[in-house]
Amino acid sequence: MKQYPWNKWRHLFSPSSKKNQLLIDDDTIWQASAHFNMPGPPDALESWRNLQTQLNRHEIAAGPSRSQIAWFPRPRLALVFTIMLLTTISLLWIIPVFHGERYSTVYAQFKTVMLPDSSQVTLNCGSQLIVDRQFNQVTRTVRLNGEAFFNVRKGTLPFIVETTIGDVRVTGTSFNVKIRDDRLDVGVASGIVLVSAQDSTVELTKGFQTVCMNHDVPAVPTKIANSLFPDWQHNRFYFENTSITAVCHEIERRFAIHIELSDASLSAIFISGLLEADNPLSAMISLCALIQKEYRHEDDAFIIY
């Protein structure tokens, strides 16, 4: 190792030296430092490695932080999240998703809708029609809740009306579909209609109709007895062995009124026949004449007694 003449410069740093007070300036210190072996700059990579090693040792000794522990959910919570995720995915897979146009009517309201394929749908009171977002691309599919008359323009794509009970399929025809609670009624004014439910299908031609109850197959087609078909488009109500409760609901839906039965025994009455439906009074007069009862109007309600 090279030796430097430290003794030559010792007097400059001696506390007892007067020169230590007078001559120590930047130049003198610079000249003196040139004779000492100063350590070189540290290696950057090696310094980073040492720092990382110290940090790792500190983390191991201190244990995981609260934020790290909170990152991992408890087993039960993780199970709940997993079930919710799987349920959401299943619903999206099972339930048909309609994102198209929605058309609806309230009580005492009718509405005519022109579909993209120029088919025309007239909604009865208190009904809803949902048009598939891919209508007229792969199929012509709509979903109905309530009652509507369809005048379908002929095309290469099948026209499908979906309901909660069964489906109606055509290519070009006019027909009426009514869904009420657990009953589906389909009648044909022109053309051919296929009605399917529970893996069973019946074919309807002009002037024929079928009834399908929930979780059942479509009934054997019968001829439409009412010459004014569909009745609601001719201001009429046509009933075949229908309970008076269901009849009252149809009148209420048509005119946005309220009907009450004064005696519970009246609910056992069933009706077959044609009722006027020009206005609420004509409907109530026709109904009471058919069942041989009276009615009165009080507190915004028609009461049959």
Structural features, described:
The protein has about 300 residues and is α+β, with helices and mostly antiparallel strands. The protein has three domains: about 45-95, no CATH class; about 100-225, Jelly Rolls (Sandwich); about 235-305, Phage tail protein beta-alpha-beta fold (3-Layer(bab) Sandwich). The chain has helices at about 5-10, 20, 25-35, 45-60, 65-70, 75-95, 245-255, 280-290; strands spanning about 100-105, 110-115, 120-125, 130, 140-145, 145-150, 160, 165-170, 175-180, 185-190, 195, 200-205, 210-215, 220-225, 235-245, 260, 270-275, 295-300, 300-305. The longest helix is centred in the N-terminal third of the chain and has 20 residues, at about 75-95. About 25% of the residues are buried.
